[in-house]
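Reviewer 2 asked us to include a model.

Predict the structure of this chain.
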Amino acid sequence: MLEYLEQLDRKILLFVNGHHNAFFDGFMYWCSGQYSWLPFYVLLLLLIISKLKKKAISFVLLVAVLLTISDQMASSVFKPIFHRFRPSHEPGLENLLHYVNNYRGGMYGFVSSHAANTFSLAFYFFFSIKKQMPKLTLILFLWAALVSYSRIYLGVHYPSDVVVPIFIAVANGFIISRLYLWIEKRYFTTTPMV
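Predicted model (structure tokens):
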């Protein structure tokens, strides 16, 4: 069973990475770049502030906590434990892949920090403020899926490297959202005078 899943992982990777062109090379490389996200993050911050007002302070601080936890789990826990080579460093596979700007990423790829971080953020929004910002929550899930897909397209992650962190992201987003909702209830909800 494990061998079958590994073969399927490789087949999907080679299919996605093998269907490339100049436009998508540039676009997927941009999607994976952390600095490309800055304008998106600034817009996200402004939307949160305009919608949540004073509550935005705790919400944004918890985003920082969430992303730190998510990133550290992926980079400092999973990758050192599993030592699974990225496809771009896998002997026998690395020469079959198409690379954009010779980008190959670090040595180990399980699990994808990009996928863990973006999906953690999307689930945090989903569990805490989806009613106030439903369209933005949907956009965050689409964005997380696009970033994760770009990692496979670029040949730096297997599909399983971006699927497994979704389960981690559900837990991360849920736990931090409970903390946000507790803070909101304790400090921002006024009880009516009798």
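Helices lie at 2-18, 22-32, 38-52, 55-82, 113-129, 134-153, 159-188. The two ends are 64 Å apart (CA to CA). We have added this to the supplementary material.
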